[in-house]
Design brief:
The radius of gyration is 23 Å and the shape is flat. The two termini are about 25 Å apart. The chain is mainly beta. It contains three helices and 20 strands. α2 packs across α3. The strands form five sheets. A five-stranded mixed sheet has the order 7-4-12-9-10, with no helix packed on it. It has three domains: about 60 residues, no CATH class; about 100 residues, Carboxypeptidase-like, regulatory domain (Immunoglobulin-like, Sandwich); about 110 residues, Immunoglobulin-like (Sandwich), CATH 2.60.40.
Length: about 270
């Protein structure tokens, strides 16, 4: 459902009929699914609920699409493909019929994901010797963290990158008090879920490896920011107080970390929650 409300209802196996009572007016997605003989059938119908009763809704289940693809590894890294596993994690909320679709990669780098839920999904490759550098869906490049799956079969070409970017970070200024200091880096134009903590040594420095790309980097006094920064509105508000850095595969990228006191972070959070 497009609202945060969810209702589950069983379907009469003999007639295929169902009834959902006491639905508050609003915009919803009506989702139906059923497994049968190893095939997953799925349907999603947008529904507008008003004060007047709705006419009966016809819901036609269709077989969920199959995703086939291949994986290649950049460079000379030799890792058995059959030690890897591909997973598609749905990004959209709503009831799910089971765990995310996943498949083992074959020795030639090929894989087949059966019965993938249509919608937006994140592709992950577990056991890979690096990061997912690119994904090609048909004749288009798509971000691995947001792949749109329709009702038709899909062909993917996945490239694993093995060259990471090196970042040498240092506090721009020492903390004014005795509060512990932690540092965080997160993606500026890539995977919106990527963030990594940076362990600072006694000199306030840290060296880390990340996939090449553009990042925001900050240090925080008196607070562990990891959980707070899952709040996207707060993260957006913090970005203007941080340093932005472009990290490439070549050389080491230097960055000075601005220090945000706990009181300043709380002010930003309070402003968002007003």
């Amino acid at each position: 459902m497009r609202s945060h409300t969810q209702q589950h209802v069983r379907i009469d196996a003999a007639t295929g009929e169902f009834r959902i009572a006491n639905v508050i007016p609003g915009s919803y997605d009506l989702i139906a699914f059923a497994p049968a003989e190893g095939i997953f059938y799925f349907a999603k119908v947008p529904v507008e609920v008003a004060d007047a009763p709705l006419d009966p809704i016809e819901v036609a289940l269709t077989a969920a699409p199959q995703i086939s693809g291949s994986i290649s590894i950049e460079g000379d890294t030799k890792v058995p493909f059959n030690s890897m596993r591909v997973t598609m994690n749905p990004l959209e909320g709503g009831p799910m019929p089971g765990p995310p679709a996943q498949a083992e990669v074959q020795s030639d780098g090929s894989f087949v994901l059966k019965s993938v839920t249509p919608g937006r999904s994140r592709l992950m490759v577990n056991g890979a010797p690096g990061y997912v550098k690119s994904v090609r869906q048909g004749d288009q490049d798509v971000p691995p963290w947001d792949i749109e799956i329709g009702s038709s079969p899909v062909q993917l070409k996945v490239v694993i990158g093995t060259k990471l970017a090196q970042i040498d970070a240092a506090l721009a200024a020492g903390p004014a008090g005795t509060d512990p200091v932690s540092a965080l880096i997160w993606s500026a134009n890539g995977d919106p879920q990527f963030q990594q903590s940076m362990g600072l040594n006694q000199q306030g420095r840290s060296k880390i490896s990340v996939p090449p790309g553009k990042y925001h980097a900050c240090a925080f006094a008196g607070v562990q920011p990891g959980a707070l920064m899952q709040n996207r509105a707060l993260r957006k508000a913090v970005e203007s107080h941080c340093e932005t850095v472009e990290a490439s595969e070549e050389g080491v990228t230097q960055v000075q970390l601005p220090l945000i006191p706990a009181a300043d972070l709380k002010q930003l959070l309070d402003k968002i929650e007003e």
